[in-house]
Every structure is written in C-alpha cells, then in structure tokens.
Design brief:
This protein has 454 residues and is α/β, with parallel strands linked by helices. The chain is built from 18 helices and 12 strands. Bound molecules: pyridoxal-5'-phosphate. Pyridoxal-5'-phosphate binds next to helix 3. Its EC number is 2.8.1.7.
Length: 454
C-alpha cells in the first residue's frame, strides 16, 4: 500500500538533488574546513559556497550566517547568546555607575512559540531573566497592543515566530519590527553616533554621562528574533524586509538533511559608534569605551559553546559539511520553486478543506483563515480524540499529526490551541494535515474517502 504522507511540517524527505550534492562530502571530500591542506581547503570552499547561497537568499552578509546543528540549537543561541552578551557587557561596565547597575534583562516571547524557544526562555527565567509571554487572539495572531505594553527599557530581546508549526498562522513580522524600531527610537535621551562625533565633549558639559552600556542598551535594543523554520519553505525571508536582527532556519523542513540549521545574526557594528568615532569625539573621560565596545565588534550574541571558534567564533565544533552543503542545495532549490509550489499546495489544501467541511459539517478550522501557510490545515473534529484519529489514519496508510511532532508524543493538549483560547477538548481533538511537494490530488481524494468511512 502506498502511504499518504501529510506531515511535512514535522519532516520533509530528502530531495534527490540534495542527496547528490551531499554525496561527495560524505565520501571523497571528507576534509576538515579548519585544516590548511588541500583537503581542508576543499571543505572550506564548500562551506563558503553554502554560506553564500543562504546569505543571498535572506539578504544577509557573509559573516551573519551561522550554521548550527539544528533549529533548536539556533533558537538556543539566539536567546542564550543575547543574554550572555548583555551579561558580558554588564561585567565590562560594572564601574559605570549608571542607572543600569541593577539591570534585570527582559525577554518577550509569544505564547505560541516552539518548545525550543519557550523552554529556553523558561530556563533563562530560572537564571534571573524576566520573561514576558505575549498572548495571541483566537485567530492565533499576536496581540500587538499587549506586545507594545510589554516593551520596556530593560527589554533586550523579542522572539516571535514567523509562522506557527501547528496552525501555520503567519505573524505580521514587519509590523512587529516597526513597533520595535519606534520603541528604540523613542529612547532619545542617549546621543546617537553623529551627536557623539560632533560633541567635543558637549555631553559632559551638559552633565550627561554615558558609557558603552547606555549606548548599546538604548540604541540597539531590544533585538528582534524570528523563528522562520516553517515560513522559509513558502515565504520570503529577507532579513531587511522583515526587519529582524536574528532569524532561525532549518534544513530538514525544506527537503534538506537533518543535522543542519542556521542562525542569522545581524552585525550590530553599524548601529553603535565605532572605536574611531568615539576616539574622534574627544570624549577623553570615556576613552575606555574603546575597550568596552570591542565586545560588540562582531555580533550581538555570545557563543554558548567554547572550542575551536568555528562559525565566526559563535559556534564551535567542526562544521557538518555534508549536511550544510545539503541545506544550501535545498535552499537554492526552494528559491527557484517557492511561488509556484505555494500556489499548487495552497489549491490542494483549500480543496481538502472544502471536502472535509462538506462531509463533516461540524468540523472547525483552527487559526486565521487567510494569514497562514499554504500547506497547513489544522482542524477540530468535535467528539474525536486526535491521538485516536492519528492512529486510525496511520493504519489506513495516512500520516498526519496531532499538534506538533513533539507535542504528539505527549498527551498534553496543544499549548498553541490553548493559548488561542480554545478549551482542552478542542486542543486535544484537533489534527494537523501539512501538505508538501509530493502531495497529489489523487492522494487528497483518497484521504477524503478514508475520512468519510470513519
Ligand atoms: N521551530 C519551529 C517553528 C519548528 O517547527 C521546529 C521543529 O518542528 C523547530 C523550531 C525545531 O527544529 P529541530 O527539531 O529541527 O531542531
């Protein structure tokens, strides 16, 4: 019996073209990219080429793409790395008797994030970081008014996902980044770069005192991170258009291999005065700023792991070249087919929904009807247990999911549906169909017949 796979949000099969691109690096081209000999250089060239592909696709700079082992690791690096950098800066500036002496950093996340964000935030909370979880409405969209209210001067990071893995609901990322930018700009009490170079010590005459801490905290923060793991397959992920400082990507959701992810890390250097600007400012009293700002020369995050300093010192460990090459190939293929494929699966998904509604009138759609990924259909079948339905469909040859892959292993109701205001019965009675490249109309028709038999 041919299986009907409708769980592409959990994992996608390896595209044969990706497998071919990886093959030489699994066998003959085995060098370590840190080695100086020819074998090493060959691996380094493949790594550079892969980075260029991903970088071009998201509009990043070369050293802003950090390869990781997974999206989970990238999400951890975004959150933990930002907090670590702030702590580092705080230590460096402990002589600065500014108002940030007793600073308690705040992180804002949405209530519907993937576990790799929510659990990381909870862990940081146990270490003294304040975590605000912004609610979503019944459609699964982040409450922007509540979000605005959650921003305060201690906020160092906002992490809101681009598209949800359970419902496929797409957040208005550029609108959220606009709110963050406006908030940053409203912190006007701190001089900007130009003011500093022109100051000739004017700030001191005015009795204002500023250090690296004040400058950074006030101008560059909060940073904005988005988990674009599910969105990448179908939506444009240009970092400037989205207005994000950090962005997580995954290989295994775009027909690439498991074992590769990436974190985009915006280089903050341009946002804060550089050493030269500061020395030119004749602000002698702050001459130690040169030293303090050194920490910001590269990026906004500090590494979680220490070691060989790979990935621009942000992610130590020998790079998984075959997986990274595969990830880049998958990204390249995606960029050529994104729009066409979005339209194709969108039509099939709408067809499936129309047919389900016709045969089970009581069925309900979870999540905004328009603002969602084209391949996702998350539905509530009243009076049904999602687990039971999943198992029965599996026996009928159909693979679907109850909630996310991780949630499916537990009997807990989906935290995403609960956050949307649905009761436990609905959160436990909803299933997710996610279509993909191999999904055909014949498969959808077969599925509809199976559902009617139930
Ligand atoms: N973020 C989102 C939105 C996801 O859907 C997933 C996986 O399903 C992840 C992060 C974590 O990905 P991985 O398990 O590959 O690390």
């Amino acid at each position: 019996m041919n299986r009907i796979y409708l769980d592409y949000a959990s994992a996608t099969p390896l595209d044969p073209r990706v497998a071919s691109a990886m093959e030489p690096y699994l066998r003959a081209k085995f060098g370590n990219p840190s080695s100086l000999h020819r074998e090493g250089q060959e691996a380094m060239a493949a790594l550079d080429k892969s980075r260029e592909t991903v970088m071009n696709l998201i509009g990043a700079k070369f050293n802003e793409v950090i390869f990781t082992s997974s999206a989970t690791e990238a999400n951890n690096l975004a959150l933990r790395g930002t907090v670590k950098q702030i702590k580092n800066l705080k230590i460096k500036n402990q002589n600065d008797k500014s108002k940030f002496k007793d600073f308690k950093p705040r992180i804002i996340v949405s209530a519907i994030e993937h576990e790799s964000i929510l659990e990381t935030a909870a862990d940081l909370e146990r270490d003294g970081v304040e975590v605000v979880r912004v609610p979503v409405d019944r459609r699964g969209l982040v409450d922007l008014e509540k979000f605005k209210k959650a921003l305060n001067e201690n906020t160092i990071l906002v992490s809101i996902m681009y598209a949800n893995n359970e419902t496929g609901v797409v957040q208005n990322i550029s609108e959220i980044s606009k709110i963050i930018r406006n908030f940053r700009n409203s912190k006007s009490q701190i001089p900007n770069n130009k003011q500093i170079s022109n100051s000739n010590d004017k700030n001191q005459k005015n009795g204002l005192r500023f250090g690296a801490w004040d400058l950074v905290i006030n101008k560059g923060y909060p940073l904005f991170h988005t988990d674009a793991v599910q969105a990448f397959q179908y939506l444009d992920c240009n970092v400037d258009a989205l207005g994000v400082d950090l962005m997580t990507l995954s290989s295994q959701k775009i027909y690439g291999p498991k074992g590769a992810g990436a974190l985009y890390v915006r280089n903050l250097k341009s946002q804060i005065p550089n050493n030269k600007q500061i020395s030119n400012s004749n602000n002698k009293k702050n001459s130690n700023l040169d030293l303090e700002l050194g920490a910001w020369d590269l990026s906004s995050v500090k590494p979680m792991m220490t070691g060989g300093g790979q990935e621009f010192e942000l992610r130590s460990g020998t790079e998984n070249i075959p997986a990274i090459v595969g990830f880049a190939k998958a990204a390249e293929l995606l960029s050529n087919s994104r729009e066409l494929e979005s339209r194709r699966v969108g039509k099939l998904r709408d067809y499936l929904w129309a047919k389900i509604k016709k045969s089970v009138p009581a069925v309900r759609l979870n999540g905004d009807a328009a603002k969602r990924l084209p391949n996702n259909l998350n539905v509530y079948f009243p009076g049904t247990s999602a687990e039971e339905m999943l198992i029965r469909l599996d026996m009928d040859g159909v693979a679907i999911s109850a909630g996310s892959a991780c949630a499916a292993r537990s009997l807990e109701p989906s935290h995403v549906l609960m956050a949307m205001g649905f009761n436990e019965e609905r959160a436990k009675g909803s299933v997710r169909f996610t279509l993909g490249r191999s999904t055909t109309k014949i498969e959808i028709d077969k599925l509809i017949k199976i559902l009617r038999r139930r």
